[in-house]
């Protein structure tokens, strides 16, 4: 039983626990979760930038091996990045004070623009960062035919 009162209802376990404004909401993944998504799915952050030569996606995947990640391009130019973060083994004598790192499956999907070369997609994993590079196709300018004006 805690001796530290909470002004927001209930009691805190120690003075370092902070009030969670979303603790009574009917979802567990935080304010930005979508029903049906797991916390690990929602927390996989990916940056997408466009350069003159390519579209570049970067995902922070600390502790995930490249063998645990799958990068696919589906019909209709859908880039899918998925994988599985392993759960740490629990020992009988362990006493957990806080579990904040996510584990389990994750998946993100992006519709690629029409000007990409899906057959030349490359992916690399370095220091826990997955980089997917999707080269751009040259935009062919329409042929312009000059018409002589008679008269």
From TrEMBL:
Keyword Amino-acid biosynthesis: no
Record InterPro entries: A-crystallin/Hsp20_dom (IPR002068), HSP20-like_chaperone (IPR008978), Small_HSP (IPR031107)
Source species, domain of life: Eukaryota
SHSP domain span: 37-151
Pfam families: HSP20 (PF00011)
Keywords on record: Stress response
PROSITE patterns, alphabetized: SHSP (PS01031)
Family: Belongs to the small heat shock protein (HSP20) family.
Protein name: SHSP domain-containing protein
Organism whose genome encodes this protein: Vitis vinifera
């Amino acid at each position: 039983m805690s001796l530290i009162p909470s002004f927001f209802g209930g009691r805190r376990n120690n003075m370092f626990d902070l009030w969670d404004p979303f603790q009574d909401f009917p979802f567990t993944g935080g304010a930005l979760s979508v029903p049906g998504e797991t916390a690990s799915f929602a927390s996989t952050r990916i940056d997408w930038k466009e350069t003159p030569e390519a579209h570049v996606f970067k995902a922070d995947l600390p502790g995930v091996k490249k063998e645990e990640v799958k990068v696919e391009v589906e019909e209709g130019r859908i880039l899918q990045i998925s994988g599985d973060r392993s759960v740490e083994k629990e020992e009988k004598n362990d006493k957990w004070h806080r579990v904040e790192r996510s584990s389990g499956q994750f998946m993100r999907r992006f519709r690629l623009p029409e000007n990409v070369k899906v057959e030349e997609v490359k992916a690399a994993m370095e220091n826990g960062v997955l980089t997917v590079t999707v080269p751009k196709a040259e935009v062919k300018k329409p042929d312009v035919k000059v018409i002589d004006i008679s008269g």
